[in-house]
Design a protein that fits this description.
Order of helices and strands: HEEHHEEHEEHEHHHHHEHHEEEEHEHEEE
Helix content: 25-40%
Shape: elongated
CATH class of the largest domain: Alpha Beta
Number of domains: 3
Number of helices: 14
Strand content: 15-25%
CATH topology of the largest domain: BirA Bifunctional Protein, domain 2
Structural class: alpha+beta
Low-confidence stretches: none
CATH architecture of the largest domain: 2-Layer Sandwich
Length: 384
């Protein structure tokens, strides 16, 4: 096997692509800071008991596991940073006030999450802890839309759902509760024959509600249809009202769609959920939602909501970055030359000293100026 061959769905990031990704990362983190989000940096690997606490089976199956040669215990390479940040909030910061945290780092998946997806993602996201009201959900949704706008996507599609709808339906039927994981998978696949078969023996109201969910998708008018066909349970009424309020916040900034059977993330989400789609990608480019119970595994349940996206996948959609303008300077150690170059770099200019014999070779930069010595002074000249 060639020594340069990489594993499937693992790839190097070359200079022009890396520059796009890094510029996006800086823009987004700077934007998060203007909203009051503090940056945290969780470790790449942890004991699996901590890493997978409250994360659900989906995250477990995506996580690479290895044995720690120091302790003999099982470690996991993180496949998602959400639970790590929840651990930091619940166990290390231990604040009683509203806490806003953000992060950016590599996550690894045992299998790609979608068509053409990489198994090594650069995940960036933001989380709010300590506020159970809809205001936190609205802020996270706004921040996710603002993040895509930074990449040039002004009108993404915002798909919304709510974990409370299915939970309210199942709470009324003990038999259905026992099949929760099975039903979750069938609803996600919109498998009506499978739902019909699995729901034999359930209460008639439960069965009718489950059969209705896969067809409750479309624009915001779906919420009115849901109020008519779903049982008037308090949990359902509250969930539909929350979706209506959040959809109202997004109208004008996104094309809003509702899908009450889209339950990806259901295993640890506890409230409103959303996914963002942009032209050119078959997979959601960002996902978010409320997950109030994850902190319980770390000894302190806190209201929580957040979102994350993969910067590498998003950057693939952007046009090739223009070459950066730079200044070409000759190689040399003369004090006056070194001082002039340092002065230009301090002011933000890119100054490239040409290696002897390679004066005009600059692959990633467009040298439109040159530093020349005239009458004892180093001056800048424009290149035609």
């Amino acid at each position: 096997m060639p020594t340069w061959l990489l594993p499937e769905n693992i790839a190097d990031v070359l200079p022009s692509e890396a520059r796009k990704i890094e510029e996006l990362r800086r823009l987004m983190l700077d934007t998060f800071r203007t909203y009051g989000y503090e940056l945290v940096m969780p470790p790449m690997l942890e004991y699996v008991e901590s890493l997978l606490a409250g994360a659900g089976q989906d995250t477990d199956s995506k996580t690479f596991k290895l044995v720690d040669s120091m302790s003999g215990r099982l470690l996991g390479l993180r496949a998602d940073m959400t639970t790590q940040v929840a651990r930091i909030d619940a166990h290390l910061l231990n604040r009683d006030t509203v806490t806003r945290l953000c992060y950016a780092g590599t996550v690894l998946h045992t299998r790609p999450s979608g068509l053409h997806a990489t198994r090594e993602q650069l995940q960036i996201g933001a989380e709010i802890y300590g506020h159970a009201g809809l205001e936190a959900d609205a802020e996270i949704q706004e921040l996710a839309l603002a993040s895509l706008a930074l990449a040039g996507f002004e009108q993404p599609r915002l798909d919304m759902s709510h974990a409370g709808v299915l939970r309210a339906i199942l709470a009324e039927d003990a038999a259905a509760q026992r099949d929760e994981q099975l039903l979750h998978g069938l609803l996600k696949a919109k498998d009506l024959p499978g739902i019909e078969e699995a729901s034999r023996g359930y209460a008639e109201a439960t069965r009718a509600a489950l059969m209705a969910l896969p067809n409750l998708y479309g624009d915001v008018d779906v919420l009115a249809a849901a109020r008519e066909v779903l049982p008037a349970l308090p949990g359902i009424t509250r969930a539909l009202a929350e979706l209506a309020a959040l959809a109202g916040c997004a109208i004008g900034r996104a094309r809003v769609a509702i899908d009450l059977a889209d339950l990806r993330g259901y295993q640890y989400e506890s409230g409103a959920m959303f996914a963002l789609y942009v032209p050119g990608l078959p997979n959601a480019v960002a996902r978010g939602g409320r997950y109030d119970h994850v902190g319980e595994a770390f000894g302190r349940a806190r209201p929580a909501t957040g979102f994350s996206l993969d910067l590498r996948e998003l950057a693939r959609l952007l046009p090739t970055a223009d070459r950066k303008h730079a200044i070409r300077a000759p190689w040399g150690n003369a004090p006056e030359l070194r001082e002039k170059i340092a002065q230009l770099r301090r002011s933000g200019d890119i100054v490239i000293q040409s290696m002897p014999g390679h004066e005009n070779v600059q692959d990633e930069f467009e040298c439109d100026r040159v530093l020349v010595l005239e009458q004892g002074n180093w001056i800048l000249k424009n290149l035609g």
